[in-house]
Amino acid sequence: MYVLSRSSIVHLIGTMFLLPIAFAIERKTAPRLSYKVCLKLFVHALYGMSASLNISCVGLNYASATSASAVLNLLPVLTFFLALLLGMESLQLKSFHGIVKVSGIVICAAGVTVLALYQGPELKSIVHHPIFRHPSRVDTHPSRSWILGILLQSLATVMFALWTVFQGPLLEEYPSMLLNTSLQIVFATVQSFFMALVMERDFSRWKLGLDVGLVAIIYCGVLVTALANYLQIWVIGRCGPVFLAMTVPLTLVITIILSLLIGEAVTLGSVISGALMVAGLYNVLWGKRIEQVALCKQGGSGENGSCLDLEEQESGVPVPATRDSIKPVPGSKERTDTSN
Predict the structure, then answer these.
(1) Which residue of 107, 253, 259, 265 has the fewest CB atoms within a 10 Å radius of its CB?
(2) SS3 of 122, please?
(3) Which of 8-17, 80-89, 142-151 ranks highest by mean pLDDT?
């Protein structure tokens, strides 16, 4: 199970890339790092980076990359559900938007059930000569192993959803995003190293060759571990965790295309479950959109500006501004009094 040693190397590359940049940019502006914040960063890195990535990598040994990306489509609904439990979101079952949200959660759950219990026939690739020859995991692993892989991917997704939700409160306590990300990656590097040391005691598996595997490790370390994690934390700080989760369905589409190019097995069950999860996701987002418009229309004059923006986005036609929505320009009253 050499993926654990590769995971520790990936985190090490991410640390070597991002930590010098973070110190160069935020060294003078970052707040003081207390022991309490340091402990929180360690815990968040443990379940959100090192454990979730290692569990996901182990799950890839039993299931395909397409199924893993399909399970990842649960992230928006899980994020919303966790935010609901923590009081960050509301759910009104008697309203239309509440019913739409619940229906989206049910559809996503149906997609996960299909993915875990039904594989279906393997879809033939339109590319007759894949870029990389890759054995079909559908043929090399029995159905029990497939279910185990789906369960591991689901567990990793739950951990990442928790990490996504808790980044908001963490950013309020330690707002330096670059150092926040860098320190979590540093802790994840140490944690992944000890995990690999326990699970993979044969150090011959730690050796890296000059092949496509080395390119993949460098790519994951720089772009996925360093840059992607920083951008995710940046988006969470600006727009919230649910907004970040909106882009997840694109992962399944891109993964299916790349899987066909490299010869990875793509089953009918993965496609059906992915379609159900995407449909459920956008049901939840649609319900959230309706709720935002309703709350905006019920709000006071201070929220009319954002309400006008939402109405313009819904209809595509500029909405005439009301008197309450027009904010006076600073100093305009003084100029008017002077002219009189």
Answers:
(1) 253
(2) strand
(3) 8-17
